[in-house]
Amino acid sequence: MKPAAASEAFSRSITQLPSRLPELIRLAILTVALIAPAVAHAHSETGVIGGFISGFLHPLTGPDHIAAMVAVGIWGAFLGAPAMWLLPVIFPLVMAFGGALGILGIALPGVETAIAFSGVILGLMIVFTARPPLWVAALMVGFFAIFHGYAHGAELPHAANAVTYAIGFVIATGLLHLSGIAVGLLIRWPWGRIAVRACGGVIAATGFAFLFGFL
Questions:
Q1: Half-sphere exposure of 136 (CA within 13 A, CB side)
Q2: Between the N and C ends of the chain, which has fewer C-beta atoms within 10 Å?
Q3: What are the b/e assignments for 146-177, b being 16+ CB within 10 Å?
Q4: Residue 160 has what DSSP assignment?
Q5: Could you read off the pLDDT of 64-73 as tens digits, one per residue?
Q6: CA 80, CA 203: separation in Å to the nearest integer?
Q7: DSSP class of 158
């Protein structure tokens, strides 16, 4: 395939992604619904499967994690390509590094505070429609990802498989980013822009609530 044709095909596939998001979100919801019955046993199961279930459910059971990860997707969609796809890739990759630090028990101060601040700051970025340079947005997202990953890694069940645990929380994070992108794409309509900024306000408020101990 010639370079021009390959580039055109790639552009077409990227353009079609937003139209397929509802289908992908339904798949994500179905996946969570199928795994949810195991939540009561997730932290007591052992081995490969137990590790994956524990890791997958961990980001989905903390409002502070959910708020920040959805915010990354929303903000990326608001910034547009390439940020829409780059930020949700950077976050899980750096988060995996933070998770390794947590699993190894390496000390990292201010984890819970940084997680709360991630909701506040990312939420405010959405509220005020902030458009920093891509490298600034990437650094910000990567910084917070370290602390989210560390929190996941530090809570690895003792008998669970560390590798599948990490795979689980990275996949769950990706699905939350995808949900955020779906919300963020509403900005194409005037009412959607208002709704997206309101979501940013809710995310920032959630971060403030964790920061000051209300949640």
A1: 7
A2: N
A3: bbbbbbbbbbbbeebbbebbbbbbbbbbbbbb
A4: B
A5: 999 999 999 9
A6: 20
A7: T
